[in-house]
């Protein structure tokens, strides 16, 4: 008799197997209902986020008022309103967002198949892994001089360094996702007669999806972090360019507008990826 069969054969005691249901009016029943309420679970993090933002702005304002070389929140809002009014901020956001999206999309599109190949085929891993590890130790910013010489000063080198940052962050995560797939699942699929293509599509890809999405989130952060340096390459617009130009004139409010804009855009894109992660990995247990 198997373990499951033995469990099924064990005698049951009605008085101890199942607790009596809570009465509708009891405190335990109300507590259970509150714990099961999805709106209650979603509302608390949003409230805590709002409190955290308010405390951060208050601390910033206190430091600025205490004599630190920081612009006050009203000064930054006023400068942002001015830049929005003359169209400068909108043009900079569009230019930077375009570069990040193109570089991030190309980097992710290249990283996922390369990571799968490295994780699934030992030959591909042996050929590619030394180069991946080599370029991981070279900061993408160090590639800028080479990119300018080889690719010129148009949009290509800017997008390339962003692509490289996103690619290197995502490819390692994808590779780890493939090699960490439970071997028992693969063996069970083979026993049931599944071919390699079926195993890859029905077992490896779903099991690796959480790792891929985490790698995409890390790659997105790397792409935004590389943006400012990438826009030093003869850029005429962009958030990074505007911040570098403001630095020459000690224009702190404009620098803060650029920083906050990058932070907000990066946060929104990260939330989109997080939402996609929850939709695509609904089977995964979460706390």
Strand content: under 5%
Distance between the termini: 36 Å
Helix content bin: over 70%
Class of secondary structure makeup = mainly alpha
Largest sheet: none
Overall geometry? globular
Could you give the order of the helices and strands? HHHHHHHHHHHHH
Overall pLDDT level = 81
User: Segments where pLDDT lies below 50 for 5+ residues?
Assistant: 1-21, 29-35
Annotation, overall tally of beta strands: 0
Rg from C-alpha positions? Answer: 26 Å
SS field, number of helical segments: 13
Structure description:
The chain is mostly helical and about 290 residues long. About 80% of the residues lie in helices and about 0% in strands. It contains 13 helices and no strands. Helix 6 crosses helix 12, helix 10 (about 185-190) runs antiparallel to helix 11 and helix 11 (about 195-230) packs antiparallel against helix 13.
Please render the helix and strand layout as text.
Blueprint: H1 3-9, H2 14-17, H3 27-36, H4 38-65, H5 73-85, H6 88-120, H7 122-136, H8 144-151, H9 155-179, H10 183-191, H11 196-230, H12 239-248, H13 252-280
For the structure shown, list the relevant keywords:
mainly alpha, single chain, 287 residues
At a glance:
The chain has helices spanning 3-9, 14-17, 27-36, 38-65, 73-85, 88-120, 122-136, 144-151, 155-179, 183-191, 196-230, 239-248, 252-280. With 287 residues, the chain is an all-alpha fold.
